[in-house]
């Protein structure tokens, strides 16, 4: 062995591919090299180093912030999978293993061993754009491209590159092997490893290896079919910031209409990130586009990280956040001004906080009458320890009076061991409150992902906890399963936009113990869904 490999006495072969000339290319991952073997003779005809890469514009620190200003210098590519593009050029997925991790893939000229093309920062930036960036891996190998496959469909040659840690397969047109053109992203379940093109049937099979039943992550095989219509994924992507980088996002567990804007929504990030941000979503485009990010700050103006599970944009300016806490006493309402600065914090009554576990406030909405009296409503996810089983609370906070009162909501039942039912959102729809009720199951096991309504009480509650009668507005499960993909667990955001359309969104948990796919659903007009204009 030669070509400057790290440990020539221990070649560490990883993956092979064979071209039409019976030449076998084998990656030597930890040795950061590729060997080409003539199969009829068994002779090694060439060995070359995969080289190093210097890349800027990526996230290199695990700090809870998607920061695309980092860089890596002279990092070995350490390729994993390899695939011949034709009889000259070959593609490698540069996962890294020992000392490497360049977060992309490369095309090599097998005759010279030179790099003909390299993805640079673009592969990781795809993950950020599509909400699939796993920030927890930023300090290590990032997206970890592990698999690559090449095949021809309808006369066009494509490369399929799998990201082990961000759970997607990127598709590229290889009509010119030295100038790959990105075409689309395919969402997978956790840890896509095996990529099998089936061109004769227009299919691509992807096997995902991660399996952890304790968090409902299961190994699976996905099938994708070449089609002529609009891809089912994505339903939401990010635009770029002022520096031209994609706006980082994930863990969108809430929605609100934007006052005065027919086609815009707000969402908010939760504790998956160290700094809370309110994101603006333009729904006029398909897929919807995140066009802006407003950092949330404390009263002193410093960045703050709330576990924000609900957001409401106030017509009079600013926002209400429903903040969930690790303990009951940490649950609170937070009022922000239009610049995202904290102006008021409202604690829950001590007796309510004492009865809360890990699942606390999960949604917020508000009404303001003609006299300017503002009433804020919150949804509590699960039962208080002091309340009857199956009864959760809806809270009413009178802003002027500074007083809380509470109503009850009866959850459905589940018989699945380890499952539970809870509320995930609340929003005002005319004279009713709409809430999301869901189980904690995903994939084929998912059963309850529903929107119900209850009457909007006209006054504060007095006496024993009054349970409000509920009516089913829409079962969202069929919409979540319409694409035949993995059914997402956390249906968590709901609102009616200024144009009267109803939107719902799933929380992707920032790709932690979740596939990472975010589904933004357009459920139809408010009149259709709720019987209300």
Describe, in short, the structure shown.
The chain has 533 residues and is mostly beta strands.
Which helices and strands appear, and what pairs or packs with what?
Layout: E1 13-18, E2 23-28, E3 33-38, E4 43-49, E5 52-58, E6 70-76, E7 82-84, E8 89-94, E9 104-109, E10 114-118, H1 122-129, E11 145-153, E12 156-163, E13 168-173, E14 181-187, E15 192-198, E16 203-208, E17 220-225, E18 236-238, E19 256-257, E20 264-268, E21 277-282, E22 288-295, E23 308-313, E24 319-323, E25 332-336, E26 342-347, H2 350-354, E27 361-368, E28 374-380, E29 391-398, E30 403-410, E31 422-429, E32 432-438, E33 449-455, E34 466-467, E35 471-475, H3 477-481, E36 491-496, E37 501-506, E38 520-525, H4 526-530
Parallel strand pairs: 18-22, 30-34
Antiparallel strand pairs: 1-2, 2-3, 3-4, 5-6, 7-8, 8-9, 9-10, 11-12, 12-13, 13-14, 15-16, 16-17, 19-20, 20-21, 21-22, 23-24, 24-25, 25-26, 27-28, 28-29, 29-30, 31-32, 32-33, 33-35, 36-37, 37-38
Structural descriptors:
single chain; 533 residues; mainly beta; Methylamine Dehydrogenase, Chain H; Tachylectin-2, Chain A; 2 domains; five-stranded mixed beta sheet; 4% helix; 44% strand; elongated
């Amino acid at each position: 062995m030669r070509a400057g490999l790290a440990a020539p006495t221990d070649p560490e072969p990883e993956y092979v591919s064979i071209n039409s000339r019976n030449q076998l290319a084998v990656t030597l991952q930890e040795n950061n090299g590729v060997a080409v073997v003539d199969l009829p003779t068994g002779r090694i005809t060439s060995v070359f180093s995969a080289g190093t890469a210097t890349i800027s514009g990526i996230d290199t620190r695990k700090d809870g912030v998607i920061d695309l200003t980092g860089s890596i210098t002279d990092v070995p590519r350490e390729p994993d999978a390899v695939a011949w593009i034709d009889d000259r050029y070959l593609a490698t997925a540069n996962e890294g293993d020992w000392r490497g991790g360049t977060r992309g893939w490369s095309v090599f000229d097998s005759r010279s061993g030179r790099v003909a093309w390299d993805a640079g920062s673009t592969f990781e930036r795809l993950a950020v754009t599509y909400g699939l960036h796993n920030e927890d891996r930023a300090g290590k190998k990032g997206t970890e491209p592990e698999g690559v496959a090449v095949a021809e469909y309808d006369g066009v040659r494509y490369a399929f590159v799998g990201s082990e840690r961000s759970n997607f397969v990127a598709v590229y047109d290889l009509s010119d092997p030295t100038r790959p053109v990105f075409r689309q992203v395919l969402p997978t379940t956790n840890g896509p490893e095996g990529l099998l093109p089936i061109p004769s049937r227009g299919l691509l099979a992807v096997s995902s290896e991660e399996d952890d039943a304790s968090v409902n992550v299961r190994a699976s095989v996905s099938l994708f079919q070449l089609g002529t219509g609009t891809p089912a994924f994505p339903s939401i992507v990010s635009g770029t910031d002022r520096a031209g980088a994609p706006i980082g996002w994930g863990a969108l567990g809430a929605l609100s209409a934007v006052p005065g804007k027919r086609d815009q929504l707000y969402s908010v990030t939760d504790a998956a990130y160290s700094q809370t941000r309110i994101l603006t979503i333009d729904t006029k485009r398909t897929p919807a586009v995140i066009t802006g990010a407003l950092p949330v700050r404390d009263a002193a103006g410093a960045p703050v990280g709330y576990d924000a599970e609900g957001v409401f944009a106030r017509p009079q300016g600013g926002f209400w956040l429903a903040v969930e806490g690790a303990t009951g006493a940490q649950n609170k309402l937070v009022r922000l001004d239009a610049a995202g600065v904290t102006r008021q914090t409202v604690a829950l009554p001590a007796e309510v906080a004492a009865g809360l576990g890990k699942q606390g406030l999960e949604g917020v909405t508000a009404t303001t009458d003609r006299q300017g009296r503002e009433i804020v409503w919150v949804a509590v996810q699960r039962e208080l320890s002091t309340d009857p089983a199956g009864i959760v609370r809806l809270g009413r906070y009178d802003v002027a009076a500074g007083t809380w009162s509470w109503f009850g909501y009866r959850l459905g039942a589940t018989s699945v061991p380890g499952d539970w039912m809870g509320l995930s959102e609340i929003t005002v729809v005319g004279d009713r409150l709409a809430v999301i009720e869901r189980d904690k199951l995903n994939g084929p096991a998912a059963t309850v992902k529903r929107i119900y309504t209850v009457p909007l009480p006209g006054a504060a509650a007095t006496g024993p906890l009054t349970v409000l009668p509920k009516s089913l507005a829409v079962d969202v499960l069929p919409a979540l399963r319409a694409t035949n993909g993995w059914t997402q667990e956390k249906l968590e955001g709901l609102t009616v936009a200024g144009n009267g359309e109803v939107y719902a969104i799933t929380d992707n948990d920032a790709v932690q113990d979740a596939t990472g796919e975010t589904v933004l659903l357009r459920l139809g007009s408010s009149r259709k869904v709720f019987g209300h204009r």
